[in-house]
Amino acid sequence: MIAVKEKQDFYLSSFLERERKLAGSDQDWVVNLRRDAIERFAELGFPTTKHEEWRFTNISALVATPFEPAAPVESATVASQLAPSPFADLGCPRLVFLNGRYTPELSHPLPAGVKAGSLRAALAEGSPALERQLTRYAHFQKHPFVALNTAFMEDGALVEITKDAVLEKPIYLLYVSVPDGKPAVTHPRNLILAGRGAQATVIEGYLSLETRNSKLETRNSKSESRNPEPQAGDQNQEPSFEFRVSNFGKTTYFTNAVTELVADEGAIVNHYKLEQESESAFHIATLVFHQARSSTVNTCTIQFGGRLVREEVRNVLDGEGAESTFNGLYVISGEQHVDNHTTLDHAQPHCASREFYKGVLDGHAHAVFNGRIIVRQDAQKTDSKQSNKNLLLSADAVIDSKPQLEIYADDVKCTHGATIGQVDQEAVFYLRSRGIGLEDARALLVQAFASDIIGRVKYEPLATRLRDSLLARLAK
Amino acid sequence: MLKITNLHAKVGKREILKGIDLEINAGEVHAIMGPNGSGKSTLAQVLAGRDVYVVTEGEVTYLGQDLLAMAPEDRARLGVFMAFQYPVEIPGVNNLYFLRSAVNAIRKQQGLEELDAMDFLQQARAKMKLLDMDDTLINRSVNEGFSGGEKKRNEIFQMAILEPKLAILDETDSGLDIDALRIVAQGVNAQRSPERAIIVVTHYQRLLNYIVPDFVHVLSEGRIVKSGGKELALELEDKGYGWVEEEAVAT
Fold first, then answer.
1. ipTM confidence
2. Within a domain: residue A451?
3. Fewer beta carbons below 10 Å: N end or C end of chain A?
């Protein structure tokens, strides 16, 4: 445990200790960048529930845990355990990061039209182009976790899609956490640049070897609380990663990810974020998008795992005629907490945005949705729609949903809506009257609710795995 | 097949069924008619097992078993089918997938093998012709975006697929134009059989020109006040429900 007043000090001393060993330590600009970032983090400190933006999300447990940098992992020990995971292989080229480190042995070669590799290597090289692009849009002035990531970032993916390239298959950035019994932190950092007219799909996935999602109850009665027993791993063999605990204890880890994605003129990028962390993990992620004129960025966030998840997605539509869609699906139960804070910034005229988040909550789960839409003064003819729909399967599940519209232009179309409901009893009865059992009927309806978002996943292998994963959670 | 004895049912505090007695045998078509609020739909839904309606007194025996003690899905698996007056829309649940699940749940109950998607599709297509339904209707979600007529046809289509022993049609004719009515009636008539009983709940006599009943019962204020053959329906058409109620009061 760390004493309250030492919260930031823990990370500060960790920084001072490790500064020289971090990637790019012989590049002045990298060193200065990191120092600015850690200083800013020290000034800001961790947010508390007294901060408006963090009102519903209490991170004191994260703050109180002494997370050490995650240890390197031998790819050989992991490969066979990773393979059976449904999201390990999506049938497309992937870059694998184990405990935040790029692992070429598990990664695939990439097609023409895209250069992708380890950010660590790029930092060590320190090209001027990288200096210009990195942190250009993910500002850390007001964002402590971005500051923390910028100070400590070690590795991640640097993806550059060539002008006019049309990639047939997605690029999959797979982050696998391998807990070893000590609380560990990684700071994945991704920089994705889509050149003019490029068309590509990028998928970011975050898993752990011990991810096992708790079941969703489909019985009508209040769900029972679940307290799974810790299971010991095998004593006589190499460490087994097959244990799980019911609290933040042994296998907790912390992923603090930042992704910057820049779409140049006319580029079309489909981005997917798959959060499948273990249910004792903290996942804090900041996705920052920036769009030039006539570009399209569609992002879809799927959150099934994690104990405490905070995802901030920001996009600036910085050119006329840019389009953006934010889709999201969170399916949580037990004691899970998922907080989605999004910002769609219409900075230029004639841009269109659509935001559609859906949530399924069971047990004592808690979800937060805060959808901010800013329409700047010059952004005439903005066309924006936002919708957040939630399905509560238990009496103890809670959703806090808030639209936040800041409109400074006067010729715009902005609509927003939120619903919170339970499974439609009429629909349940209709299905039962045809012979479908109560639990199957409810499961069918939950799937139907989620299928909206899963149906928007254009890459079929990913959509199929999502459907199956959801089905598995509903099965008895 | 079905025996209803002194059935009383309420919704909330209001008692709607005040003592229904009715016997229905296989092969028979019974029409239940009555003014609005008489309890026609309530009777249908109580038989189907809608728990919003609470049975306060009486018994219902179906194939010798206590129907009221069964969950709705168990009733369906034993061959009870209700065509809803207002079929609900279920976005996201595919029509065909839903029907196949229903069919297989019933087949499982009967110890039969489940149908796979291909076999089922074949059977479905044959029955679709019967109800003049086009292919696209099948790929859509259950009742989503269906017009009133399409919803009613979908109900009868389901009846054709599920082949129930006891079919209860709850105001299947309401909201239909004459062409839709004809198609729906044709679909129902095609399913008449000595093993099947059909209860037709209707406000208007017109449907009964197409689905000719063996027995007609008139419901008024939660009780059956008059029973007869198909001519009774014509008499009602002629004289109105008021006449039956007056008679009931007089006796």
1. 0.95
2. no
3. N
